[in-house]
Design a protein that fits this description.
With about 725 residues, this protein is α/β, with parallel strands linked by helices. The chain has four domains: about 190 residues, P-loop containing nucleotide triphosphate hydrolases (Rossmann fold), CATH 3.40.50.300; about 150 residues, no CATH class; about 190 residues; about 80 residues, DNA polymerase, domain 1, CATH 1.10.150.80. A six-stranded parallel β-sheet has the order 3-2-6-7-1-8. A five-stranded antiparallel β-sheet has the order 16-15-14-13-19, with no helix packed on it. β15 and β16 form a beta hairpin. α15 runs antiparallel to α17, α16 runs antiparallel to α19 and α18 runs antiparallel to α19. The termini are far apart.
């Protein structure tokens, strides 16, 4: 396929690589959509995840299914983060840390065969992405590449499911997604067809695809209706049918008619490989003379066959299959092939998103092929086909069947076509017409690039999330710990006001500056004045972040209340992450300069493990230990809020040791409020100790002597 100079492909690639705009890449059968995706995967610098709606489509796209990646149930999704089956099922997000890091760090989400994706499934994806990325942006702010042809196979939706979903969606198609309607996305249509070269046949296919059916078109197509057609065995005709059971019955009947013994070849499966993703039969039964289709390209480098090549079994034994390819006449000794079931993981060293093999399916790359369903023929090309499209029951089925053929002469209709067999959806046609209008011209593309540049700068100089995290921590201390930590609360409030004035407020005014400079510059990406301003801004804000980082670094807050303790830990963790990531990004821009591509890559890496990035890989245990130390440490560096930091340190260590000895939580030995009361009042007798709040007579009886000893030794010192 010579697609190197395809203008539409180049435009699509430009949108994906130089902007953050969502893209719907479409085109009729054979225009190179699969080629585009393959090349994008090979050489794009963006961190991408490739998904598809079905197991077979995912295998073909070398990705994974939407449901498996996002761990979604198959029940309909209803707006409001819920799935329902019979009105009862619900869904809760349960992702591993690695999966969360992949979601947070991806730049591009690719969905292949988008025509088969329902609107509610796309909204479910949006819900997950918002949860783990930016909850205010559709799909969490990640760029979306949707590939497919709406004139081909439609999404599957049962009547009872549509009764439920129709309350929320105008159509079941992906373009009715509520999240997608919130976005601005472009459409690029590939128009150069590589599968067919017969111009008259192309015109007929386009007429079917676009629902422009005339008596003349039907007459031309029906000229290929040949009653009682029985092809010669060596012609290699394959029959495309509408239903699975029809294909199965035809293949079983034809196989049974062949003389000689049958041989069954059982696939070998290693690891995890779900049944719905099997690329061919688990039990492959063949006889000499059987018509077969290759279901995988030749991996031996000789290009003897490809996915969809038809042939005849000429010899076989228990461990050998020989096939003569119909198109070339070449005899091929077929060897077993492997298909991988993969999942996305983060590389331990580079922290790049990569595919990890979970399971392998090993089988001869063949299936009996007197007949296959139209659905399973999608993506294949045949020289000769008998088409049973008169019984088409779904939008796009007839077009998919007809477009599998290279030429009009290569197809035969088993029944004449009528207008009723060409099922189209008016809403698809309306959307397709409107979508063409969103294809960007040169000026629009330049605007999208400029917008992406400015929005990426906005991410660098957006301090609102950090301010929100600081405000949340301050609010928790103010509401629940103000009596325990009045000085630390005062410090937090003071820092919050300084942050608003010197960072967030200045950033808002700075945004006006760099937007004005960028809009006024023709070559904004290389403009020295813009580079200088961005560098100076990065230096200023890094300096201004330092006091907040220092304050949070020495913040030591404790409470025995489990609920407040968790909220406190989460708030401190979020604030630490926001500050550390922002500080690292500013340092990167100061040292390396600013470009959207390098900045987004660094941002993605820093998003992994809350900013550990590439250079600081920590074990889970180490991260947990560090977090606990940062948040809950109370020994030696307690603040002056406690009245007597050294005494507090000794009492805390004693309480921890006693709790460890008894195997109970520390608060069950003695509440923290009691420790703080001892530090402030420094009791010298048991009577004085009894008057300390939260001590109680039982506490004095049990620990009074030990506590007074610690008080005497520490306070006297």
């Amino acid at each position: 396929m010579k697609a190197e100079h395809n203008a539409a492909m180049e435009l699509a690639r430009d949108i994906v690589e130089t902007t953050g705009t969502h893209l719907f890449l479409t085109g009729r059968a054979g225009t190179g959509k699969t080629t585009f995706l393959r090349r994008l995967k090979e050489d794009s610098p963006k961190r991408m995840v490739v998904l598809a709606p079905t197991g077979i489509a995912a295998i073909n796209a070398e990705g994974v299914t939407i449901h498996s990646f996002f761990q979604l149930p198959f029940a309909p999704y209803l707006p409001g983060n819920s799935f329902t089956a019979d009105g009862k099922a619900a869904y809760r997000f349960r992702f591993s840390k690695e999966k969360i890091n992949i979601i947070r760090s991806m730049d591009l989400l690719v969905i292949d065969e988008i025509s088969m994706v329902r609107a509610d499934l796309l909204d479910a994806v949006d819900a997950v992405m918002r949860r783990y990325r930016d909850r205010f942006k559709p799909f969490g702010g990640v760029q979306l590449l949707m590939i497919g042809d709406l004139r081909q196979l439609a999404p599957v939706v049962k009547d009872d499911e549509w009764q439920l979903l129709s309350r929320y969606y105008e159509t079941p198609y992906f373009f009715s997604s509520s999240a997608l309607k919130e976005t601005e996305y472009c459409t690029v249509e590939l128009t150069e067809v590589y599968r067919q070269s017969d111009r008259r046949f192309l015109e007929l296919l386009n007429s079917i695809r676009e629902n422009r059916i005339t008596p003349d078109i039907l007459t031309s197509l029906n000229s290929r209706y040949i009653p009682g057609f029985r092809p010669a065995k060596d012609e290699g005709y394959i029959r495309l049918v509408t239903h699975n059971h029809t294909a199965h019955d035809i293949n079983a009947d034809e196989l049974s008619r062949l003389p000689g013994p049958s041989f069954t070849f059982t696939a070998h499966i290693e690891g995890k490989f779900p049944e719905y993703s099997y690329p061919t039969d688990l039990q492959l039964e063949l006889r000499r003379g059987a018509q077969v289709m290759f279901v995988k390209n030749d991996t031996g480098g000789e290009h003897r066959y490809c996915n969809g090549t038809i042939g005849e079994v000429t010899a076989l034994s228990e461990d050998m299959i020989e096939v003569r390819c119909n198109d070339s006449g070449e005899l091929v000794t077929v060897k077993p092939e492997e298909w991988a079931n993969a999942r996305y993981v983060l590389d331990d060293t580079s922290r790049e998103i990569r595919e990890e093999i979970e399971g392998v399916f090993m089988q001869y790359p063949l299936k009996t092929a007197w007949a296959i369903t139209i659905h399973k023929s999608q993506g294949l090309t045949f020289d000769h086909a008998i088409i049973d499209a008169a019984g088409a029951f779904a939008h796009g089925q007839t077009y998919v069947a007809l477009s599998r053929c290279r030429t009009l002469e290569g197809l035969v209709l088993s029944m004449p076509l009528t207008e009723k067999a060409v099922i189209t959806d008016d809403k698809v046609e309306t959307f397709s017409r409107e979508a063409r209008l969103s294809t960007p011209d040169t000026a629009r593309l330049d605007t999208l690039r400029r917008t992406f540049y400015i929005s990426t700068l906005g991410l660098l100089f957006d301090f609102a999330p950090a301010e929100a995290a600081l405000s949340a921590l301050t609010r928790i201390v103010d509401e629940h710990l103000y009596r325990l930590y009045p000085r630390q609360l005062a410090a937090l409030k003071e820092e919050l006001e300084r942050f608003k004035e010197n960072i967030t407020g200045v950033a808002a005014r700075f945004a006006v500056q760099y937007k004005r400079l960028t809009d006024a510059s023709e070559h904004y990406a290389d403009d020295p004045a813009i580079r200088q301003r961005v560098h100076a801004g990065a230096e200023y804000f890094k300096e201004q972040l330092a006091p907040a980082i220092m304050l949070v670094g020495k913040m030591r807050l404790e409470t025995d209340n489990k609920e407040i303790k968790k909220r406190l830990k989460d708030a401190l963790s979020e604030l630490n992450m926001q500050l550390s990531v922002k500080d690292a990004l500013l340092s990167h821009v100061i040292d390396e300069g600013f470009s959207p591509a390098t900045f987004m890559r660094q941002k993605a890496l820093l998003a992994i493990d809350g900013g550990a990035g590439v250079t600081e890989k920590k074990s889970r245990a180490a991260r947990k230990g560090r977090a606990e130390a940062d948040i809950m440490q109370s020994a030696a560096d307690v603040t002056a809020d406690d009245g007597n930091p050294r005494l507090y340190s000794e009492l805390t260590e004693w309480r921890r040791a006693e709790a460890a000895r008894l195997g109970i939580p520390a608060y069950m030995v003695m509440q923290q409020k009691a420790l703080l009361g001892i530090c402030r009042h420094v009791p010298r007798t048991k009577d004085m100790l009894c008057r300390i709040p939260y001590m109680g007579k039982r506490g004095v009886e049990k620990y009074g002597e030990e506590i007074l000893r610690i008080v005497r030794e520490t306070a006297d010192d």
